[in-house]
Design goal:
It is globular, with a radius of gyration of 18 Å. It has a 5-stranded mixed sheet. A 5-stranded mixed sheet has the order 11-10-12-9-13. It has a 3-stranded antiparallel sheet with strand order 2-3-4. The chain has 10 helices and 15 strands. Helix 1 packs across helix 9. The protein has 2 domains: 120 residues, 3-Layer(aba) Sandwich (D-Maltodextrin-Binding Protein, domain 2); 89 residues, D-Maltodextrin-Binding Protein, domain 2, CATH 3.40.190.10. Helix content is 35%, strand content 23%. Bound molecules: arginine.
Length: 233
């Protein structure tokens, strides 16, 4: 029995639906991947800050949560082959006039929100003069922007786009600054020593990429141009 951890705060990737069940692109995907690999499984909802520690201490065996494959993370954990290409996107409050780049946000000494220890947070760290405000959940950064607690937010482009289109009450006074700013690949995360499991997950995922299943789920969840299904290797 594989225990799979998911941070269900990332609609439409993974979230709790009206019936309180785990739902979303990554829920559908991981079910297909493990079933196709022949495993029984259990899904658990774990907050972002607890995912990597809980995996390493064997509370669960797999994590899927829009996690970007990074070299630094590979020192501690193993990744599957990529299932999605995405990146970060930036929303700024309309009060930030005449600002069209991160450099200009830095010049204005803007306060920009991001979820802690994410690639969005690392992205902002490149701009010394930006005041980074961190949040446990991406949605909290967006709520804070609506309340003028920050001047803008950086997040995974699918989430940013979702909030821009579906949480108008929060984002009506904001605009996109540019488009997708980075190219990142999402992978399923495993413990380093689980080499056999990694091979089985990769084989299963590869088949689902090749037979169009991943693209079908991308279409079902309307991920649009903000995330792209990679070609199978
Ligand atoms: N892709 C980003 C990263 O890996 C953000 C992931 C955040 N995911 C989440 N479910 N909260 O750093």
């Amino acid at each position: 029995m594989l225990v799979i951890a998911i941070d269900a705060t990332f609609i439409p990737m993974s979230f709790l639906n009206d019936r309180g069940e785990l739902d979303g692109f990554e829920i559908d995907l991981i079910k297909e991947v493990v079933k196709n690999a022949g495993f029984d499984y259990e899904l658990v909802n774990v907050e972002w800050g607890g995912l990597f520690g809980g995996l390493i201490t064997e509370k669960f065996d797999l994590v899927i949560s829009s996690i970007t494959i990074l070299e630094e993370r590979k020192n501690r954990m193993a990744f599957s082959i990529p299932y999605l290409q995405s990146g970060v996107a930036v929303l700024v409050h309309n009060d930030m006039e005449n600002v069209d780049s991160l450099e200009q946000l830095a010049q204005a000494k803007a306060t920009i929100g991001a979820q802690i220890n994410t690639t969005s947070y690392y992205y902002l760290q490149k701009y010394q003069d930006i005041n980074i405000k961190t949040y446990d959940k991406f949605a909290h950064a967006v709520i804070d922007m609506a309340n003028k607690g920050n001047d803008g937010v950086v997040g995974d482009s699918v989430q940013v786009n979702y909030h821009f289109n579906n949480r108008k009450e929060l984002t009506q006074n904001a605009r996109f600054l540019g488009s997708r700013m980075t190219s990142e690949f999402y992978g399923i995360v495993l413990r380093k020593e689980n080499i056999e499991l990694q091979q089985k997950i990769n084989a299963s995922l590869k088949a689902l990429l090749a037979n169009g299943t991943v693209q079908r789920l991308h279409d079902k969840w309307n991920l649009g141009d903000f995330a792209v299904v990679p070609l199978p290797e």
